[in-house]
Each structure stands twice: as structure tokens, then as C-alpha cells.
Amino acid sequence: MAIRACIFDAYGTLFDVNAAARRLSAEIGPGWAAFSDTWRSKQLSYTWLRSLMGQHADFWQVTGAALDFAMAAHGIANRDGLHDRLMQLYLHLEAYPEAPDLLRRLKAGGLTTGILSNGSPAMLQAACTSAGIADLLDSVLSVEQAGIYKPDPRVYRLVTDSLGLRPEEVAFHSSNGWDAHGAKLAGFQVLWINRAGQPAEGLPCPPDHELRSLAEVPALLGL
């Protein structure tokens, strides 16, 4: 069945999650990349743990708690409000260079475009506006509508319920291997954007395709 919608994870797929720490790398120090990795990994861990514990909090709160942990773990002092400045930068993460052109090509090809993200609605609105892609998206869906984080199946059903499509009519794109498996379990056609060249996850329901960047998507979709 032909693809009718292209849906994207936001953080790490459309938006560079290292951009905030990179912009303040001079203050963070030479270990800024490792610090950023800790921030991101703890951010994801907290989403999974809160889902399992039945203690949901929105992604802004989770991101702040993960930042607290990363700063403590790397011995980074909160000088000159560094914590708050990093959080504000997280609202204005840079989009990957190929993302805007890809979205324009998809829309020109008659496909519905959208986001399905752990991000809170306010975070997603800020990031899309800052990156200049808000007008290129037909739908921006947050897990807050389900009250639980990916990869819970209820999150992926937000796409089909919102767009009125069958799962197989949706191409889902994510840089996160675990997210790609969750989306495939939901019945989507899944493109894993494996930017970092990670090994395959040992999980059920592997993605249909593995790409290195979003720039490879149009050729795969025949655009």
C-alpha cells in the first residue's frame, strides 16, 4: 500500500540534541560532548522509568532532571545560571541541515508530514518555530496526549487516530533504534536514521530500512 504520511521523531531525528551543549562548550569544557551524551541518555532513561513506575511528568521536567544529573556527574557547577541557559537553548535546537529540504520535497510530493515526539507541546512548538520548519508540518503530536512515553503502543496509535490512516500507510522515521522497533510493532513502515552507525538493537520488530541521514529518504520513497 502506498505511503500517505511521513512522520518523524523530533529529538535526534529532526533536531540535533547536542546543539545546546555545543553552543556553550567553552563554558562546559573539553568534555562537553560526553556531558551532552550523559544528559541525553539520562533523559531517555527517565522517560522509560517514569512510564514503568506510573509516574508521568512532561518532557520539560524530565529534561531538567536529566540535566541536573549530568551536571553533577561531570562536576559542572551551575555558574552564571548555566542550567537555565542550557534549558532555554533546548527550546531552540538546530534542525539537521537536510531536514527542511526533505520536508519541502515530501509536501511537494503530496505526502502528509508530521512529528510524533516525547516532547511537550510547548517544547515542540518552540523548536519547530526556531528551526523554521513549523509551516512544513501538517501535524505535531506529543506523547502528552497519551500520558505515557514511547515506546508504549498507545503513543504510536496517536498517529493513526489523528490522521485517519492505516498503520501501513505511514512511514515513520527515527534516529533511535528502540523507537524504530516500537514503531514497527505498531505496523508502520519504518526508516531508522542511524546517524551514529549504531549496531542493530536486539529487540523484536526491526525497522524496514536503515539509512545514515534524512537526505537518503527521497530516493527511497521515489521522490
Written description of the protein model:
The protein is α/β, with parallel strands linked by helices and 223 residues long. The protein folds into two domains: 5-15 and 94-220, Rossmann fold; 19-90, DNA polymerase, domain 1, CATH 1.10.150.240. The chain has helices at 19-23, 25-28, 32-53, 59-73, 82-90, 99-108, 121-131, 153-163, 177-185, 217-220; strands at residues 5-8, 112-117, 139-142, 170-174, 189-193, 209-211. The chain has a six-stranded parallel sheet with strand order 3-2-1-4-5-6, sandwiched between helices. The longest helix is centred in the first third of the chain and has 22 residues, at 32-53.
Keywords:
alpha/beta, single chain, 2 domains, 223 residues, 6-stranded parallel beta sheet, Rossmann fold, DNA polymerase, domain 1
- Supply the CATH class of the largest domain: Alpha Beta
Task: Output the number of helix runs.
Answer: 10
The arrangement of helices and strands along the chain is EHHHHHHEHEHEHEEH
Rg is 17 Å
The main pleated sheet reads as: 6 strands, parallel
Secondary-structure-derived class = alpha/beta
End-to-end C-alpha gap: 16 Å
Q: What spatial order of strands do you see in the largest sheet?
A: 3-2-1-4-5-6
Q: CATH fold name of the largest domain, please?
A: Rossmann fold
Number of strand segments:
6
Specify the CATH architecture of the largest domain: 3-Layer(aba) Sandwich
- Count up the domains: 2
* Shape assignment: globular
Helix content: 40-55%
CATH superfamily of the largest domain: HAD superfamily/HAD-like
Oligomeric category: single chain
Uncertain regions spanning at least 5 consecutive residues: none
Strand content: 5-15%
